[in-house]
Design goal:
The complex is a heterodimer of chains A (509) and B (315).
Chain A (H helix, E strand, L loop, with lengths): L1 H30 L21 E9 L7 H16 L1 E9 L3 H10 L6 E4 L5 H6 L7 H7 L1 H6 L3 H4 L2 E2 L2 E2 L2 E2 L7 E7 H6 L14 H10 L4 E4 L7 H6 L3 E2 L8 E2 L14 H15 L14 H6 L3 E8 L3 H9 L3 E5 L4 E2 L8 E3 L7 H13 L1 H9 L7 E2 L5 E2 L32 H11 L1 E2 L13 H19 L8 H11 L1 H18 L2
Parallel strand pairs in A: 1-2, 1-3, 8-11, 13-17
Antiparallel strand pairs in A: 3-14, 4-5, 6-14, 7-11, 7-12, 9-10, 15-16
Helix pairs in contact in A: 2-15, 17-18
Chain B lengths: L1 H14 L1 H19 L10 E2 L7 H7 L1 E2 L6 H4 L3 H33 L3 H12 L6 H12 L5 H10 L13 H26 L3 H9 L4 H26 L6 H5 L9 H4 L2 H9 L5 H29 L7
Antiparallel strand pairs in B: 1-2
The chains are: A alpha/beta (509), B mainly alpha (315).
Family (chain B): Belongs to the binding-protein-dependent transport system permease family.
Subcellular location (chain B): Cell membrane
Protein name (chain B): Binding-protein-dependent transport systems inner membrane component
Chain lengths: 509, 315
């Protein structure tokens, strides 16, 4: 009898242990989603008696201070609760870890109701894998405000296979490219940027800076993806998503070509090499982990190439801390991926897609919510000036909340920062409307059929691109680069892309 | 006959019930954490469709596509480079780390001052605790083209022209081997030191009486007595020969494309290839390939060890 009892005890104990283990495992995956009680059992309609729904909204952390996000979230939720009977919980994920973390969340069953998507962050493959839900019906039902507030290109331009999977944030969909430099140095050496008409014209300026300002880098490369060469040719190329097979906009046709084989690419690479050899570009540009903002801030750089837009100089001056003057060297051009560069989508993980769309609708129509989200709390993160613009409150050295305004929603509802053109948003709308767009606008490449080739070609590109495009590597390797690309199967990718593009063009006649 | 065996089995279960119960939590842990996820190997042969959720769908739902997910690994000339690099580097690391770790362990064991011995042990272990990202920046401070310690101080002293380290693949086999040794030797050394400390002192006393030199003591007593530890450590390392230290091969060369001929290994190739695709089928394929080769290698080396000495084999 006694031994029986002991046995029972031992059994109970070990069962308890196992149960504990199982619970621990289950808990691990559950707690990551930040699920709170409020989110379970929420109703679908916003009847006043229903329990409010908590929406999880994942967005990338772009490195700006966001310490006060919770305070902002609280304020937003006061409005959202009242208007759509829902609250939102923002989850910040580091830019660098974004793809991986989102992949994990979407592959699992974690709740996620809204997320920022981008052609640069696997948008089309998410759609191909059914990780996002089509928004067409939801937009009709709960997103009328979005359709009224935005130019159609912001939501029509994101279609894949005829369905809308994301709504673009309000921002410039096009870009002109140019050179930006520190105004104090321009003045000191009496350089007149308005005389510069092409990238080649900059050479004597670089030389002057190299001679007169020893230790300073005349041309800072933005980073190893936005290379010197990339910024020089970007306005002539629609890279059709991944840059493996592109449209040359000068050619004015819809033939997909290999960018790396074009004479335009070769010229740009040779120019970069010339500048690199002359010491205008930093010798470690190909591997440097430091972005241009850090280098410019530290006073080590004179200027840099960049994509631009109305008000760009003001934005950069704020970012860098030196006054920046710019010159635009190309017309404003919109590639196929303009609208899909930054969007909000609803993942198939969402438990409340209707509510998610209602909240999305607020982001495009509700000025209070947008001001909170992009500027922070009035009085704490910004104050209004007499002419209706905003500035950082007196005595605030470093704000606890700086949001990247172009990231989500309809920014044209928000106040404009002091120092910017008061008509910033109108200018931006005009900039978008007057630009030249790629004939492939709205086209998104689905790489699923040529995955094997994409993996191989990605590897080849990662071997050569950064070196060639910063001038660190002699352009003599270009033929070898092209040969390796062909071996890895770039022609297969180009053929597939051409096929999809032709289909897309035929469908959108 | 059969029934009597069953009865015997039941008798043994009853007799050892407490031991079995004690083993249960561990077994459950093993099953949950190591065996259940193995069902996931099927992912490597499938086209994953995320609209279908749940374990059942994972196992039976998605479309089978055979070995298509594996293709990219073998498609280009890179397949040869990355396999060669992976095996040669890891092979070299296994041998070199073991030899140096044992040497250091023996030397540490000879230090009489307890304080100094502990101090050296800690100092030598320190690099093991540093993240590879930081190690990458330490290496950068040495190798930076313009301000690096090597180009600014060492090479001018020797009268050699500055070297553009991050675009010259030829130097990297040495750099990576050195960094790996510097980082990992401390940890291995502690394991061997523990084995050496456990050796009975009477052996050495007897050897001294017989007039054995220090070198003879090391080769005839220390090394043979820690041989089982060496074998196990080596066998475990061989099983992972197809996995490389991703941090070492990605962070330390700063992802410099020009260095790929000598720094690209399977893990970095897979990472670079799938960064844009984010395809779990293809990454599972790479993982399965690596563990399958590791499995074969570990069986093979275990078999070799067994032929020499049964006791030292893992199984």
């Amino acid at each position: 009898m006694a031994s029986n009892k002991r046995k029972l005890w031992a059994l109970t104990l070990s069962l308890l242990l196992i149960a504990g283990l199982l619970a621990a495992c289950g808990g691990g995956s559950g707690s990551g989603s930040g699920n709170s009680k409020g989110s379970s059992g929420g109703g679908q309609s916003s009847g006043s008696g229903e329990k409010p729904v908590e929406l999880i909204f994942a967005m990338p952390n772009t490195g700006t201070p966001m310490n006060d996000l919770e305070l902002v979230q609280e304020e937003i939720n006061k409005i959202a609760l009242q208007k759509i009977n829902a609250t939102v919980k923002f989850t910040l994920i580091d830019w660098a870890a974004w793809n991986q973390q989102i992949n994990l969340v979407l592959a699992g069953n974690e709740q996620l109701d809204l997320l920022v998507t981008s052609a640069y962050m696997n948008y089309s493959s998410m759609v191909a894998k059914n990780q996002l839900i089509p928004l067409d019906d939801l937009l009709q039902q709960y997103g009328q405000g979005i359709m009224e507030a935005m130019d159609p290109v912001f939501y029509e331009g994101t279609r894949i296979n005829g369905k809308i999977y994301g709504v673009s944030s309000f921002r410039e969909l096009v870009a002109d490219y140019g050179f930006n430099a520190r105004k104090d140095l321009l003045d000191k050496h009496q350089i007149d940027l308005s005389q510069v008409k092409s990238f080649e014209d900059l050479e004597p300026i670089f030389q002057l800076i190299k001679e007169k300002e020893p230790g300073m880098i005349p041309l800072v490369q933005r980073n190893t993806s936005n290379t010197v060469v990339n910024d020089m040719i970007a306005s002539r190329v629609d890279n059709l998503g991944d840059g493996m097979g592109v449209l040359m906009l000068d050619d004015n046709n819809t033939t997909v070509v290999n960018l790396y084989e074009t004479p335009q690419y070769r010229e740009a690479v040779e120019l970069a090499r010339k500048w690199y050899n002359a010491g205008y570009i930093a010798s470690d540009a190909a591997t440097s982990q430091e972005g241009y903002v850090a280098l410019m801030k530290a006073g080590k750089g004179f200027g840099y190439f960049s994509n631009m837009k109305p008000g760009f100089e003001a934005q950069e001056t704020g970012l860098i801390g030196y006054e920046i003057e710019g010159v635009r060297l190309t017309p404003a051009v919109g590639g196929s991926s303009g609208p899909v560069a930054f969007m909000i989508s609803i993942p198939s993980n969402s438990k409340h897609p209707e509510k998610a769309m209602q909240f999305m609708n607020l982001l495009y129509t509700d000025a209070d919510i947008m001001n909170l989200l992009t500027l922070g709390i009035e009085g704490k993160h910004y104050v209004k000036t007499d002419n209706g613009q905003v500035r950082v409150p007196d005595g605030v050295e470093s704000s606890g909340y700086v949001f990247n305004q172009w990231l989500i929603g309809n920014n044209s509802l928000t106040y404009v920062w002091e120092g910017w053109d008061p008509n910033q948003w109108e200018n931006l709308k005009a900039f978008n409307r007057n630009a030249v767009y790629s004939p492939a606008l709205g086209f998104l490449f689905d790489a699923n059929k040529v995955k094997t080739e994409v993996a191989a070609v990605s590897n080849v590109i990662s071997e050569y691109k950064a070196g060639l495009e910063s001038g660190a590597v002699d352009p003599n390797v270009l033929p070898k680069f092209i040969e390796d690309l062909k071996k890895a199967g770039i022609d297969t990718i180009i053929a597939e892309k051409q096929r999809q593009l032709d289909e897309f063009l035929a469908a959108n006649q | 006959m059969n029934q009597s065996r069953w009865r015997k089995f039941r008798k043994r279960v009853v007799r050892h019930r407490m031991l079995i119960l004690m083993a249960l939590p561990g077994l459950a842990y093993l099953v949950i954490n190591n065996y259940l996820p193995m069902l996931g190997v099927t992912i490597a042969f499938k086209e994953i469709d995320y609209s279908r959720k749940g374990l059942f769908n994972l196992l039976f739902g998605h479309e089978w596509i055979g070995f298509k997910n594996f293709e990219y690994l073998f498609r280009t000339d890179d397949a040869y480079t990355i396999t060669r690099n992976t095996i040669l580097y890891n092979g070299l690391f296994i041998v070199l780390n073991t030899v140096v770790a044992i040497a250091v362990a023996i030397v540490l064991n000879e230090i009489r001052s307890r304080f100094m011995s502990r101090l050296y042990q800690s100092l030598i272990l320190l690099p093991y605790l540093i993240s590879m990202v930081i190690v990458g920046y330490l290496a950068l401070s040495m190798l930076n083209v313009e301000n690096g310690f090597m180009n600014k101080i060492i090479l001018p002293l020797l009268g050699i022209d500055p070297v553009s380290w991050y675009s010259e693949p030829a130097y990297w086999p040495y750099i990576l081997t050195f960094v790996n040794l510097w980082k990992n030797v401390g940890y291995l050394c502690i394991i061997y030191l523990a084995a050496i400390v456990g050796i009975n002192h009477e052996y050495y006393e007897a050897a001294v009486i017989d007039g054995a030199s220090k070198w003879q003591q090391i080769t005839r007593i220390t090394v043979p007595l820690i041989a089982p530890t060496i074998t196990i450590m080596m066998l475990l390392a061989v099983g992972r020969i197809f996995y490389s230290d991703f941090g070492l091969f990605y962070q330390v060369p700063l992802n410099s494309g020009a260095l790929k001929p000598t720094t690209d290994v399977i893990d970095t190739y897979v990472y670079r290839g799938l960064m844009t695709l984010g395809d779990i089928g293809m990454s599972s394929a790479a993982g399965l390939y690596q563990s399958a080769v590791g499995f074969v290698l570990i069986l093979l080396s275990n078999w070799l060890v067994r032929r020499r000495s049964r006791d030292q084999a893992l199984f």
